[in-house]
Amino acid sequence: MARGRQSTGNRRAGEAAILAAQRAIDREDEYRRPIKTLQGQANIQADLLSSGSNLETILQEADGDNADSFLMTCRNRLKAVAEGNAKRMYEIDYFVEAVREVKGDMQRRQLEEQGEDGAAVPDAAVEAPDYESSINEAIESIRTKSETDGLKPPVEEHELSIELRTRLGEKIQKKKARTSRGGGYDDDDDLEIVNNHNDDVHALKCPFTAMLFEDPVKDKNCGHTYSRAGLMQMISNRKRNCPVPGCANKNVTLESVEEDEETKLKVRRFKTREENLRRQRELADDEDEEGQGGGYTVIS
After folding, report:
1. If we measure between CA atoms, which residue out of 212, 214, 227 comes closest to residue 257?
2. Whole-angstrom distance between the N-terminal and C-terminal Cα of the chain?
3. What are the Cα distances from residue 276, in Å, to 39, 214, 272?
């Protein structure tokens, strides 16, 4: 009886481990969110530091001897941030793939430890496996295979690095990397990849609603951004074409979009700037009204 109880206990522990593995897989977007937020902040700074920007002109006019060195240092640091973000994205890829692999092993193990009637086999009361070690070993194996076989581009050629370098003014042929069936990564130029670099009010409006973006999401295929509510409305009307004129993307779905952290930051910055301008105007109006009083007080 003791062995049967132990075997049942191992089975329950295995089921709990499988559920925990699935929860870890389901949190993939949560793992990536802070990286995307940091990348969005870096992209905004890259726009300010881009070649030919107003900031570059001001610095060169003020201190031409040191401006170029200062700008180069700032740009290199931003590129290092993007490459670090790319590396962290790869590590998340390896982790999620490793957890999926170990989860599959756990499920197979459970089937092997069950009899034909689905009941636990008493003699299967063996020591519970070390799942953490299994995941770490799988991560290392996946990372090594990826680096050896060239399944992923180097971090300086990751899409995060390419986008930031483009914003800095570097001349780069932008392509969308994808994993090919035969391994490695191919280039796909079928869709136009678009970067909205400025935060002009028109660039911050949803193509569906014509209002400022709310809960913005970016299409991973064409790079265009929509408000989630506008996208939901379009899908409910059974439409799939990207609404941006000239875009070749004809299959916009909920699965093809992800949260656009950079646009969230830009909208927040725009609203803050508009609020500050409104307060300045109100203050100026108050000062004008006080000046028109003439400095006399009438006592009745």
Report:
1. 227
2. 103
3. 26, 20, 6
* Cβ proximity of 265 and 46 under 8 Å: no
- Which tens digits make up the pLDDT trace of 18-28? 899 999 999 99
From residue 88, alpha-carbon distances to 46, 141, 167, 169, 237 in Å are: 20, 17, 21, 25, 38
Tell me the three state secondary structure of residue 128: coil
Chain-centre distance for alpha carbon 264: 12
Per the structure block, which two tokens stand in for 172?
């780069």
pLDDT tens for residues 33-43?
Answer: 999 999 999 99
d(CA 121, CA 294): 98
Residue type, 81: V
Pairing of strands 225-227, 216-219: antiparallel
Bridge pairing between strands 176-179 and 185-188: antiparallel
Compute the distance between CA of residue 258 and CA of residue 39 in angstroms, rounded to an integer.
14
Q: pLDDT, tens digit, for every residue of 54-69?
A: 889 999 888 888 998 9
In the three-class reduction of DSSP (H, G, I as helix; E, B as strand; rest coil), residue 227 is classed as strand
User: What is d(CA 256, CA 216) in angstroms, rounded to the nearest whole number?
Assistant: 13
Per-residue DSSP letters for 139-187?
A: HHHHHHHHHHHT-S--GGGSHHHHHHHHHTT------EEEE-TTSSEEE
User: What is the total residue count of the chain?
Assistant: 300
CB-based contacts of 122, cutoff 8 Å, min separation 6: 3, 4, 7
The DSSP string of 270-287 is HHHHHHHHHHHHHHHHHH
